[in-house]
Amino acid sequence: MTLPSSTTSSGTTPVTTPPCASSGATDDDARSRSRRKRRAGAGAGAKERRAPAAGEKVYIQRDFSRGGRPVQFQTRIPEELKGRIDDASFERTVEGINSRYALAEEPGCATWCEGFVGCLTAYTVFLCCDTNYERVLRKVRLYVEQQNERVWNPRGMHITDPALRGLRLIEITILED
């Protein structure tokens, strides 16, 4: 902040003041406030985790370590789910979803022919036929429904189909405590 300077014959430069001086606070006051904030929030230095309550959601983020393609989700179990489901069941479900999306992204003869026929018909063929990707999305939806019935719902949780969330994340809803 610059205070207005009066024009003097000696050619003095404008006087600058620290930001805390304009509000009437001193450097010591600012340091004391910052120390109090650190003490209040620090504790042992670790964030306290609590188990999510019924109705809360836990999100599994998409893994962009390969540049975003193929669609792939993180297989590390979140802290909020530990104790609610074992690591192997969690990883098996996420790996199942990941492997199905990897098949959709895999180039092959069928996808080449699909594109070629689409080009020849000005893409009107897709009005009556599903694309390979749409078929894979249906398979993922059925897999998620199956996993919900067998694994997740009995444990009081529910997985939402990633396609309903724009393939950005897997949403797990806690149904009961």
Give the radius of gyration. 29 Å
Question: Which geometry do the CA atoms define?
Answer: elongated
| Overall mean confidence score, pLDDT | 78
As a percent range, the share of strand residues is 5-15%
Overall number of domains = 2
Structural class computed from helices and strand pairing: mainly alpha
Strand order within the widest beta sheet: 1-3-2
Number of helices: 5
N-to-C series of helices and strands = HHEHHHEE
What proportion of the residues is helical, as a percent range? 40-55%
Characterize the largest beta sheet: strand count, sense, and whether it forms a barrel: 3 strands, antiparallel
Measured between the Cα atoms of the first and last residue, the distance is: 55 Å
Low-pLDDT residue spans: 1-10, 12-25, 36-47
In short:
By secondary structure, the chain is mainly alpha-helical.
Please characterize this protein's 3D structure.
This protein is mainly alpha-helical and 177 residues long. The chain has helices at 19-22, 27-42, 87-105, 109-120, 132-152, and strands spanning 57-61, 157-160, 169-174. The chain folds into two domains: 1-48, no CATH class; 57-174, no CATH class. The protein contains five helices and three strands, in the order H-H-E-H-H-H-E-E. It has a three-stranded antiparallel beta sheet with strand order 1-3-2. Residues 1-10, 12-25 and 36-47 have low confidence and may be disordered.
